[in-house]
Amino acid sequence: MSSLIEIRNVSLQYGSSDVVRDVSVQIEEGEFFVIIGPNGAGKTTLLKSITGLHRLTAGEILLRQRSVSKYSRKELARSLAMVPQHINAEFPFTVAETVIMGRYPHLGLLAVERKRDLEIAEQAMAFTEVLHLADRRLGQLSGGERQRVIIARAICQQSKVLLLDEPTASLDPAHQLRIMDLMERLRQQEQITIIMVSHDLNLASAYADRLLLLNEGRVAALGTPNEVLSGETLEQSYGCRLHVDEHPLLGTPRVSLLPRTDH
Ligand code: ADP
């Protein structure tokens, strides 16, 4: 069976500096796929490149065996929905207005929402539990609520792939779990493929089917959490002391930071 997304020998540059170097990975339909790696490793750049936003220096990215560069923006938006890392809190729209924007790729020339579009937006808000905030402006929400609104907009887009850039950054543990559980539910109930950049190695370990560890733009490791999360592999990429053992309740690899002992 062919993969949903195939990243083939992809390299990317900003100016003359290589940011992603010869990365190849295939992502299957319905997978929970998490990209990890140190700051500046190229994770966000690689994620964005799946949406066709970056010109590749080499290689190609295929979505259902067709190069993403051959899709129109609207076609791509019907297949892929991006949840960006930074959301402008000054965005001058209400929650309901923001979420309904997810319907844009499905609207006709006049871009008029029909009853069905409004129903889908309402369902998406209910799914992420922001329906009660429908009339509030984004600036009047907490970070966790805002994140759930942006996820609702992506769900409203009804694309089968969700791309998320550090969706749990700056959230407290309860809200981190809520977002991760939401992703797992989308995957199970709607067969949505989740591709996420995360700095949280333990959340990645608990939820991901497979991990891609990027370091200096290259694939440092690719495989199941058990295969990727070894102390030695992580230390080489992150350049700090890390201890990995088995989580006593989950059975998944557990990563702990080891403070330096020489101070
Ligand atoms: P990560 O998500 O792993 O932290 P990024 O993909 O954001 O890494 O960035 C990879 C490298 O590309 C970094 O060195 C970063 O400084 C550089 N970079 C990111 N965005 C730009 C940009 N718009 N222009 C120039 N360099 C950039």
Give a description of the structure.
There is one protein chain. The chain is of the alpha/beta class. It contains nine helices and twelve strands. It has helices at residues 43-50, 73-79, 95-100, 115-127, 143-156, 173-190, 201-207, 225-228, 231-238; strands at 5-14, 17-27, 32-36, 58-63, 66-67, 80-83, 161-165, 193-197, 210-215, 218-223, 242-246, 253-257. Strands 6-7-8-3-9-10 form a six-stranded mixed beta sheet, sandwiched between helices. A four-stranded antiparallel beta sheet has the order 2-1-4-5, with helices on one face. Strands 11-12 form a two-stranded antiparallel ribbon. The longest helix has 18 residues, at 173-190. The radius of gyration is 19 Å and the shape is globular. The N and C termini lie far apart (54 Å). The mean pLDDT is 91. It binds adenosine-5'-diphosphate.
Main traits of this protein?
263 residues; alpha/beta; 6-stranded mixed beta sheet; 4-stranded antiparallel beta sheet; 12 strands; 32% helix; globular; binds adenosine-5'-diphosphate
Choose one word for the global shape.
globular
> Average pLDDT across residues?
91
Query: How many beta-strand segments?
Result: 12
Spans of at least 5 consecutive residues with low confidence = none
Number of helices: 9
Task: Give me the strand/helix succession.
Answer: EEEHEEHEHHHEHEHEEHHEE
Derived from helix and strand composition plus strand pairing, the structural class reads alpha/beta
